[in-house]
Amino acid sequence: MRTIQQKFTRLVSSMPLIAAMAAITHCGPSRESHSTLKDQGESRDQLLAIVMSGNKSCHRHNNNPSSPVRASIFPDFNRFKDKMERTENLEIDYVLTCYDGLGRLYMTNSTNPENVLSADEDGVLPFIEEFRRVRPNHRLLLIGHSYGGWLSLKTTLHLHSELESLPRLTLVTIDPISKVNCSPFKPFGCSSSPTDISGDEYQAISGSSNPWLNFYQRQTPIVRGSAIEKASHNIEVSATHMDIDNQPLVWESIEKAILGRF
């Protein structure tokens, strides 16, 4: 397993320097916004959101053949982001990913949404580590739907094993489906939350996140997650697997979790 630093070096070396810096460094609000906050004696809480959409959720956008910008989860996340920044004094940076079904992530970020990067399944880890270096007091929100939910669980495990100190993490799994258990060749492994993650690993995930919200549905019986014992909150949603990530209950619950009201 490569370390986060090795992954970061490999990712940066594959991009032009300017694009790399745009991808990992966010300059925050405009100068005018900074001035306004300073004059008011305010400081904004900093939140990094990693939003991981499901299998084959990449679509062509402008000149990018595989972009996460048109993933179904993104409009609802954008509305959540805008509301939280407007009403709760939060500054939210994000990394948005889609999964191509072949083991590759395509990622973009709030600094330059048109700049799409390709990486391995654990490609978000360098972004998290660099953001922690630049903004050590930030909070982390990790949201994943379907295969993205499975990847968010794996990402939390990597953070648990590789970082000496963990960021304040809110974990949200939305009908998580494992790529290991569920595929066109394993259709009977698509009707539960990931079983390739052991009980001890689930315990580590639970201990690393506060809170962990796990959403699941029953209306698509052949492709669905399920309750996970170690999650701090299991919430059944009246929806299908394809639209559960767009339900108001999901985003209202995420808002409550970020505000410490769960």
Quick synopsis:
The protein has helices spanning 4-13, 17-24, 31-40, 73-87, 125-134, 147-162, 199-208, 248-258; strands at residues 45-55, 59-61, 64-67, 90-99, 105-109, 117-119, 139-145, 168-174, 212-216, 233-236. It is α/β, with parallel strands linked by helices and 262 residues long.
Identify the CATH class.
Alpha Beta
Biggest β-sheet: count, sense, barrel?
Answer: 8 strands, mixed
* Derived structural class: alpha/beta
Fourth CATH level, the homologous superfamily: Alpha/Beta hydrolase fold, catalytic domain
Tell me the fraction of residues in β-strands, as a range.
15-25%
- Output the CATH topology: Rossmann fold
Q: Determine the number of helices (DSSP H or I, runs of at least 4 residues).
A: 8
Number of strands: 10
Question: Rounded to an integer, what's the Rg over CA atoms?
Answer: 18 Å
Please tell me the overall pLDDT: 82
Q: Classify the helix fraction into a percent range.
A: 25-40%
How far apart are the first and last residues' alpha carbons, in Å? 35 Å
Strand order of the largest sheet: 6-5-4-1-7-8-9-10
- What is the CATH-assigned architecture? 3-Layer(aba) Sandwich
Spatial shape: globular
How many domains make up the 3D coordinates? 1
Give the H and E element order. Answer: HHHEEEHEEEHEHEHEEH
